[in-house]
Amino acid sequence: MANLLDVSNFSVGFGSAEPVKGVSFSANPGEMLAIVGESGSGKSLTALGLMGLLPRHARAGGEIRFDGRNLVGLSERELRRIRGRDIAMIFQEPMTSLNPVLTIGDQIIEVLRIHEDLSRRQARERAIALLDLVSIPEARRRIDDYPHQLSGGMRQRVMIAIAVACNPKLLIADEATTALDVTIQAQVLQLLDNLRVQLNMAVILITHDLGIVAQWADRVVVMYAGRKIEEGLPGEVFDRPYHPYTNGLLSASPRLKADYHYRDGPLSEIPGSIVSAAGEKGCSFRPRCPVARPACASTVPQLIALPAGRQVACPYVPAIAEKAHVASVG
Ligand SMILES: Nc1ncnc2c1ncn2[C@@H]1O[C@H](COP(=O)(O)OP(=O)(O)OP(=O)(O)O)[C@@H](O)[C@H]1O
Ligand SMILES: [Mg+2]
After folding, report:
1. Residue 98: inside a domain, yes or no?
2. For residue 275, what pLDDT is reported?
């Protein structure tokens, strides 16, 4: 059976640069998928591609099959019908996403009335119910507040209420809790997780925080320089990271290091930075890789499929070399 979301060989280009290069992953109702990777690895562009919100001058390639339709190449009009209703997104900074001159109630009501045939009174009642759903106390009174009257955590809850207003099948949270302090962050994540269950949504969580991934995600996709370089169950990936980049990422995360017993890499920090990927041959992690070989300079490593949905784009990982039954998945 097809998945709710099947992204295959998705790419994004600007001129000669290609910041997203043939990424594939899938998501299903009720599943929390995390996408991690360092700054500039193409996470947000991938998310914007899913929302049909890529900049006008971007070239998108490949397929984003959502509920049976390919979203790549749909007209703006068709995308607008899907966006906000079937696929919704919350961003890092709620103050810039909320309109400061409208009450939070009006902003929720606006979204409801774009996508659903409700009277103003019905929409207002739904908006109050949504504020309740995201645990805003005294929703009936707070609905007439302006964004500046709410704390950062409350504003992020309002953003979530707007995002889930039309029961989307897929919710994308791009660094949605990064700006919040740790306690509030945990509450917002708990809320997202509750909504995932209650509304049976697929949730894509984009984050730098591996601790969050370990605690909340069902599956994790690791991106590096525009490619997916590893995927698997968080417990397995963090316990035994295969790709040298994932290993480095974990070594640099002290909190997780205490919880997982992965082999200790030589890196406490990954040296260097993402190199400009335009026209580059070979593995993009090679300049920073502690186990690079000469062949890495000429061939882009293909993803190798392992049991339990694990994938890794490096043929020189001992766990891979040992296994006879692996198959390249392109
Ligand atoms: N509008 C644009 N025009 C040209 N290049 C862009 C544009 N938007 C993003 N890029 C490039 O694409 C690359 C990936 O960007 P993206 O925002 O997806 O990274 P990210 O993984 O979300 O990073 P971060 O963790 O910092 O949010 C970046 O190197 C960036 O320079
Ligand atoms: Mg980003």
Report:
1. no
2. 56
